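Changelog-adjacent note: as of this version, every example in the card shows the full chain rather than a window. The one below runs 252 residues end to end.
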Amino acid sequence: MRTLHEVSIKIGQIEAIFRYPVKSMRGEPLEKAGLGWHGLDGDRRLAFRRLDERGGFPWLTASKLPDLILFAPQPSKDAKGDALPSYVLTPEGEELPLFGEALAAEVGRRYGAQVEMMQLKHGIFDDATVSLITSETVREICRLAGRGADVRRFRPNIVVRSTRAVPFEENDWVGGLLTFGDGDDAPTVAVTMRDVRCAMVNIDPDNGSLGPEVLKAAVRANENNAGIYGTVTRIGRLAVGQTIFLYPSEIS
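Full-length structure tokens:
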């Protein structure tokens, strides 16, 4: 029997890794990260809950408060590895404790209603636990939108530097498996669906201003899809520079 590696296709390398400890707040670039059954260690484990919301999705996101993307979670001074942040840097540069009343009050003031910081062991995700996008897809959408290429708008966990270097090749990965590294125990993600984009991509990550042309470009170029979502099927360690292999759906 052939191994997974023997029937896979090399598609590129990991260009960047990001995790987002607090949902919709600024992301954290990483050189290495643990990939567990519930996504990257420490990814989206925290979120503000809207106390006035009784529906099925009570979390406050930047689509409702664009300013949220300007808040930057900060690790404690002696934090190591994948530890969650303990403080948040506000847009004005003030450092506030993550679970303190001052941070909840500041975010609630901007939102216009009370919020409460929550921590969930398995994370708070919209559609799946892992998201990937190629740098070429980012460049193409931003080019069509007349904006500088900025991967932060798309909030992926993994940015792929593709060997083919063509935009939207992620569409062809759906149904396949992605492995990171060439060992028999390489972490693996099953690609489950394309990433349907929302107004989050319109938010400028530096100042929170809105530009609808980015989402319009994604709609025009690829039916509002940019990147893919996946589910972890083998845990392990990710690192920038790792080779990525695709085990296509036609073979699987």
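Structural remarks: The CA atoms of residues 137 and 233 lie 25 Å apart.
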